[in-house]
Amino acid sequence: MRLLENKTSVITGGAGGIGLASARALAQAGSSIVIGDKDHGRLDLALEELDLGDSCIGVQCDVTSSSDVTHLVNAAVSKFGSLDVMVNNAGFTRDATMRKMREEDFDSVLGVHLKGAWLGTRAAADVMRTEGTAGSIVNVSSISGKVGMAGQTNYSAAKAGMIGLTKAAAKELGFAGIRVNAVQPGIVRTELVESLKPEVLSAKLAEIPMKRFGEPAEVAQVILFLASGMSSYMTGSVLEITGGRHI
Ligand code: NAD
């Protein structure tokens, strides 16, 4: 029996990077997959790349929209009959020092990460409670939310906020058997990171005890662990996936 046999997982921002790797890992563990992503073109490419046939659908969804997120989780139940795992992963960065950061860059980053994860947690928990499902919700935070990064006051605040959200939601939902946990990746080789300047990347590399960046699949394995019964007595936890950086 695979870890997620007969389960259904929704992954926001699942059309790229860590989300796509998570979709692959959860599917390999037996789960049906619903990918929610804002980018229609990327969504089509991801579905093609995953090549999972009827056990995977894509839903265009902006995680900052309450109605989109509700539609996303409902799509999981109507297509596959349940919602067992929700991975709140969608996001982007708008880095700048506070002096240069525009107010809209603060709002948009808080919106996609913090409000997006709140909407996703709320919608998934509603469905899980209605259906009586002992589900698992995994929020993708960042090590920036633990230590704070210069040039990322918006992102660090949002990612730290997601930890408060995770712990508060875990306390509200534990009685229903719904677990809520978070991961804090360090630097993982995705498009988000490849857009950074080479000098910034080499300075960061020097801080990593394992002397390399992470791979999306390495984050996906930890998300799979939290999504599955392997972590059945864990809720409100935060797992760092950083190669030892910022321990
Ligand atoms: P990515 O850019 O490769 O993928 C992010 C996906 O989110 C894209 O497919 C994008 O279309 C989607 N997206 C963006 N805004 C959206 C919205 N409003 N609604 C729905 N989808 C939206 O990025 P990634 O590196 O895979 O990052 C995934 C998550 O992991 C993010 O939350 C990021 O903050 C977090 N993270 C990444 C790293 C890293 O080093 N890559 C480190 C720590 C945390």
Question: Quaternary status of these chains?
Answer: single chain
One letter per element, helices H and strands E, the order comes to EHEHEHEHEHHEHHHE
Question: What's the name of the CATH homologous superfamily?
Answer: NAD(P)-binding Rossmann-like Domain
Topology-level CATH name? Rossmann fold
CATH top level is: Alpha Beta
Shape estimate: globular
Domain tally: 1
* Helix fraction bin: 40-55%
Structure description:
- With 247 residues, the protein is an alpha/beta fold.
- The chain has one domain: Rossmann fold (3-Layer(aba) Sandwich).
- 47% of the residues lie in helices and 15% in strands.
- It contains 9 helices and 7 strands.
- A 7-stranded parallel sheet has the order 3-2-1-4-5-6-7, sandwiched between helices.
- Helix 1 packs across helix 9, helix 3 packs parallel to helix 4 and helix 4 runs parallel beside helix 6.
- The longest helix has 29 residues.
- It is globular, with a radius of gyration of 17 Å.
- The mean pLDDT is 97.
- The structure holds nicotinamide-adenine-dinucleotide.
Short description:
This protein is of the alpha/beta class. The protein is 47% helix and 15% strand. A seven-stranded parallel sheet has the order 3-2-1-4-5-6-7, with helices on both faces.
Topology, element by element:
Layout: E1 8-12, H1 17-28, E2 32-37, H2 40-50, E3 56-60, H3 66-80, E4 85-88, H4 103-131, E5 136-140, H5 144-147, H6 153-173, E6 179-185, H7 191-194, H8 198-205, H9 216-227, E7 238-241
Parallel strand pairs: 1-2, 1-4, 2-3, 4-5, 5-6, 6-7
Helix pairs in contact: 1-9, 3-4, 4-6
The chain binds nicotinamide-adenine-dinucleotide (NAD).
